[in-house]
Write a structure and sequence with these properties.
The protein is an alpha/beta fold and 571 residues long. The chain is built from 20 helices and eleven strands. The strands form two sheets. Strands 1, 2, 3, 4, 5, 6, 7, 8 and 9 form a nine-stranded mixed sheet that branches. 32% of the residues are buried.
Length: 571
């Protein structure tokens, strides 16, 4: 190991910081530029799903709400997998896909009651307006899976399957998403696993609850340092704080005589813990400065112990009769304030509010970063955010073009003249490109130009689809094949009669056979159109009819041209 790495390990005494330094050292030493270039190339080649497939995914949405695994961790190779289909079913539901999203996540060490707390939030959101939202004394607590004991329960990242629409006082409606995360530092997780889960939840959430037990210790702040490092380096280019709201939720607080329970005592306690002064060691100052510089809002809440029976009884199922009165009192203060409509922080990236549809693109971009062998450098986070930001802008522009074109020629609307339709297409394309260019995006002009070219190509594909859809409404085109076949049948029937009249029976027989073949072709074409079977045969018949019509048109144009020339010569 190089001398610089050894010196760093001597300075950082705590095991966690040594692990973090080792992880960062490995990243700097082993992750090549070609690896990141390949990741970016693969992200750029991602094809967007069609609206039909989204509809099919939504049709499989479970009727009963429950937790949905969206990020899973392989125990064998510690790789991460995003379930895009499950995430799409949640975020692309028609009633929320275009709404600005609020993502509330709870992260922290394992077996500290994260899922237990989230289930009370779920209960509150379902019972808004009810003063007795905590429920009855004998009512079990349901929602995200939780249990007592020392073994971890939640793995990866889970979302509650139902997104909660919440209306603010100004009339705007936001979509609230609840996120549960795998506990950090259990006996099955590596430092990379813990860092990845925490980073993913922090980068995709607008409100991150950092769930801690009893106190804020220095190693708790050092655990945050890995993630704030991403933000600190990214700020050199985006000049904005990368993360939004961070709340330190201190569980089992045992010193109410020093700092009272709730937000008031929490703010006083947090000010003291995150205070930076010259007497502190430089490393301690750096940790605190990073946290302040990477979150737009930082708060703290002190929560008492829920009671001895909650902690020790194997039969406890969340009944309020077993929960300490002071804990219930503080829950009634914490959760309504945390989920107050006007206090909800909408997810923002680079100053732009993100919709549920846009959040899906950010998840796709971020998960690609962590599917490599090494934890990526912070600069890769910036590139992933810029990619997701541009993809979200592309999706918004395409959605605008789609809605405008649907009003002109979509669905059951009548046939539109091709010239008029092309004019509409040109106008709506320019509007979509203007929407894309006017959206604030990250990555620089050259980076954004690639996505503008992608948008132009996808708009051209959509235009070709609308053009074909419009042509299918043209009655002449729809009946072109049977019309050509009918004319040929009549022609060969007349020729058969003429040949038979003049005594050319052989030629008459050939014409009769041709009439029979053409009638069989017409019946086959009608059957294919009715049943939808054997599309290749139907396509061949359509193509043959088109060739005949084209040749006949060319011949007629030539004869007309010859007639005009003869008239000019005679004159």
């Amino acid at each position: 190991m190089p001398l610089r790495g050894l010196i760093i390990l001597q300075i950082h005494k705590t095991p966690f910081m040594q692990s973090v330094v080792l992880c960062r050292f490995a990243v700097n030493a082993h992750v090549s530029r070609s690896f990141y270039s390949e990741l970016i190339k693969q992200s750029q080649n991602r094809s967007s799903g069609t609206r039909n497939s989204e509809t099919e995914d939504l049709s499989r949405m479970p009727s009963k709400p429950g937790p949905v695994q969206i990020v899973s961790v392989s125990k064998d190779d510690h790789s991460f997998e995003l379930d895009v289909e499950a995430l799409s079913r949640i975020l692309l539901a028609p009633e929320v896909r275009d709404k600005h999203v609020v993502v509330l996540s709870v992260a922290g060490a394992f077996r500290k009651g994260k899922s237990f707390l989230l289930d009370f939030m779920i209960r509150y959101l379902y019972r808004r307006g009810d003063e007795n939202w905590l429920g009855k004394d004998d009512e079990p607590l349901t929602g995200f899976s939780w249990r007592g004991g020392s073994e971890p329960e939640t793995t990866g990242i889970q979302l509650w399957s139902e997104v909660f629409p919440v209306r603010k006082s100004d009339g705007t409606e936001v979509a609230v998403v609840l996120m549960d995360t795998q506990g950090a530092f259990d006996d099955q997780s590596t430092v990379k696993d813990c860092a990845t889960i925490f980073a993913l939840s922090t980068m995709t959430s607008s409100i991150q609850l950092y769930n801690l037990s009893q106190n804020i210790q220095e190693d708790d702040l050092q655990q945050l340092q890995l993630f704030t490092e991403y933000g600190r380096l990214a700020m050199d280019e985006i000049l904005q704080k990368p993360f939004q709201s961070l709340m330190f939720l201190i569980r089992d607080w045992s010193f109410p005589y020093e700092y009272v329970y709730g937000f008031k005592g929490g703010e006083e306690f947090l000010d003291k813990r995150l205070q930076v002064n010259e007497a502190q060691h430089e490393e301690l100052q750096t940790v605190r400065e990073h946290i302040h510089s990477c979150f737009t809002d930082i708060s703290c809440f002190l929560l008492p112990h829920p009671g001895l029976k909650v902690a020790t009884s194997p039969t406890f199922e969340g009944e309020l009769r077993d929960v300490a009165p002071e804990f219930k009192k503080q829950l009634k203060a914490l959760i309504p304030q945390l989920l107050c409509p006007d206090q909800l922080a909408e997810k923002e990236i680079n100053g732009n509010k993100v919709t549920c549809m846009g959040l899906l693109e950010f998840f796709k971009a971020y998960i690609k970063i962590y599917q490599g062998e090494d934890l990526p450098q912070p600069k890769t986070m910036l590139m992933a955010t810029a990619e997701a930001n541009n993809l979200a802008a592309v999706a918004t522009a395409k959605e605008q073009y789609y809605k405008n074109m649907e009003k002109v020629c979509g669905g059951e609307l009548p046939y539109v003249a091709p010239k008029s339709l092309e004019e509409k297409h040109q106008f709506f394309s320019k509007e979509a490109l203007h929407t894309f260019s006017s959206t604030k995006k990250m990555g620089g002009q050259e980076f954004c130009d690639r996505y503008q070219a992608q948008l132009e190509a996808e708009l051209e594909e959509m235009w070709q689809s609308y053009l074909k859809h419009n042509e299918s409404k043209n009655l002449f085109i729809a009946f072109r094949t049977p019309a050509v076949l009918f004319v040929l049948i009549c022609l060969f029937y007349i020729l058969s009669g003429v040949f038979l009249f003049v005594g050319l029976a052989t030629f008459a027989l050939v014409c009769d056979c041709a009439v029979g073949v053409l009638m069989m072709a017409m019946l086959t074409w009608a059957f294919i159109r009715y049943s939808g079977r054997y599309p290749n045969v139907g396509g061949a018949i359509d193509q043959a009819a088109g060739v005949v019509l084209e040749q006949a048109t060319v011949a007629m144009n030539k004869s007309k041209g010859t007639g005009i020339v003869d008239q000019k010569k005679s004159s």
